[in-house]
Write a structure and sequence with these properties.
The protein is an alpha+beta fold. It has helices spanning 19-33, 42-50, and strands at 35-38, 119-125, 150-155, 170-174, 182-184, 187-191. It has a 4-stranded mixed sheet with strand order 4-3-2-5. The protein has a two-stranded antiparallel ribbon with strand order 1-6.
């Protein structure tokens, strides 16, 4: 499908993408450009998001809906605040936003969209922890002990809470799953 996104716009992230769709796109892009593109490894994704910081977010330890697109509403049932900063008005946009619309790029020039907007597929199979993970930053391409099809997603989504926005937050999902909150980011890996 040439335009799978539910939310339309030239500068919005593509969403409604399965892991297989994202890999197939990278293959087609590589063939078309004669350059190698792929999904990032989980380690590469976090390195790019952090941009040499060690805070919860590349811009510090506090997040509000003024700097990222996530569900910032309070959850009274579970007594959860929608913001790390108390007393601020929060927004739940209920859709993706234009990439870079918050204007906060990290030290590598990547915008705050790594903290929200859409989950982003990574190359790796899901593992509950990093025990046995590659030490060189490459993708963990051996399935976990359960031999399931789960893959890693990083970032956050406009649907989820602030807690998932952190640089270190990780999620798993079935590789064939697609949703209006799942997209991807590509990595240039060199000439074909």
């Amino acid at each position: 499908m040439p335009d799978p996104s539910y939310f339309k716009g030239d500068k919005r992230p593509v969403e409604h993408i399965s892991w297989h769709d994202a890999v197939e796109f990278c293959d087609r892009l590589s063939c078309h450009t004669k350059r190698q593109y792929r999904l990032p490894s989980e380690a590469e994704w976090e390195y790019a998001c952090r941009a040499r910081t060690n805070t919860l977010f590349h811009f510090g330890d506090t997040i509000t809906t003024d700097v990222a697109n996530y569900n910032g509403t309070d959850d009274e049932e579970y007594q959860l605040s929608g913001s790390y900063a108390q007393g601020l008005k929060v927004i739940y946009r209920k859709e993706t936003t234009v990439v870079g619309s918050f204007g906060i790029a990290n030290a590598f020039g990547l915008y705050d969209d790594m903290h929200g907007n859409v989950f982003e597929w990574c190359e790796d199979f899901w593992h509950k922890n990093y025990q046995g993970a590659p030490a060189d930053g490459s993708a963990w391409i051996e399935p976990n002990d359960n031999q399931n099809c789960d893959r890693v997603m990083r970032g956050d989504t406009w649907v989820a809470s602030k807690d998932i926005c952190r640089c270190a937050s990780r999620q798993d999902n079935w590789s064939r799953h697609l949703g209006f909150h799942i997209g991807f980011r590509v990595v240039y890996a060199g000439a074909v």
